[in-house]
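Consortium newsletter contribution from the modelling node. Members have asked for a concrete example of what our holo predictions look like. Here is one, prepared for the adenosine-5'-triphosphate complex that several groups have been discussing at recent meetings.
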Amino acid sequence: MNIVEFKDVTKIYGRKKAIEEFSFSLGENKITGIIGRNGAGKTTLLKLLSGFLVTNSGQIRVFEEDPFNSLLVSSNMIFVDDSMSFNPKLTLLEILESANHFYEKYDMKFALDLMEYFSLSREQLHRNLSKGMQSTFNMILGIASRSPLTILDEPTTGMDAAVRKDFYRLVLKDYINHPRNIVISSHLLGEVEHILEDILLLKEGKKLLHMPVSDLKNYGMGLRGEKKLMLEFIKSQQVYHKEDFGDQDLFAVVKNDFEKKTLESIKSQGIEIIPLSTNDICVHITNTKRGDIDDILSKNQFTGYNKKANQ
Ligand SMILES: Nc1ncnc2c1ncn2[C@@H]1O[C@H](COP(=O)(O)OP(=O)(O)OP(=O)(O)O)[C@@H](O)[C@H]1O
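And here is the predicted structure:
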């Protein structure tokens, strides 16, 4: 059974289409990464999924219901992000107690053990915690809920490196012991990919791909060779990125839908095949800019910003 179904979903803020004709589904018990650059639409997608936002068009089903105003969805789902707000008078213990009351599978002992491990005092108020400690507490609240649909929106914001490491280990181990659907958004695939099974990649509100992380490794590849030869070869390919490499060569990132014999033929012509990391593949296929940061730097290094000329 699919836990989540999106069919042609569009969400517009003013004139901005944050999510556009988006369709995907999530089966049972997986860790899925929602990956995309800043502004790609990750948070909007997760808020639609959680029933916090209504669509402009299209259909969403979560546990076979429209998530908006659904008690079934809210009691089986937890949404964790760094802007969670609580009654300011409640202590951390009281917040956990109310979650324990609401969520059927809540593991209060686990939550309290984690609080102790991360040096969070039960008597503290949430608003008095540092940013990183708030994220840590929110993560404890979310993981201990054991919600069938656990949504973590950029959960590591503000956490230091050691806490991040513990966080990823905790999510993975707890998921193995208590399988459920965990959806994590991030703009850093490299940081989360070791705990993900599937990746849903967004670009400018649209779905670019949804596949097992292991398949993403072969989705794109780097090619380098003599410029003229390369330009001739890549003109019939889907090219995500190209840049000069020295005076003579060109480097390009292309979609990998080549047959084995084509690869052998290009190698024999002197084009080198360069394997890319999944993170590099994501960066290149979600790139929206023309040129790169070096172009801006080289344009500005001698002149600087001339206020008068620009007035
Ligand atoms: N409440 C809003 N009103 C108007 N525009 C919005 C609103 N929320 C989001 N947007 C716009 O919708 C687009 C998608 O935003 P969203 O927050 O979903 O992206 P994101 O992928 O989560 O970004 P980030 O990684 O920077 O958090 C952006 O262009 C953003 O400016």
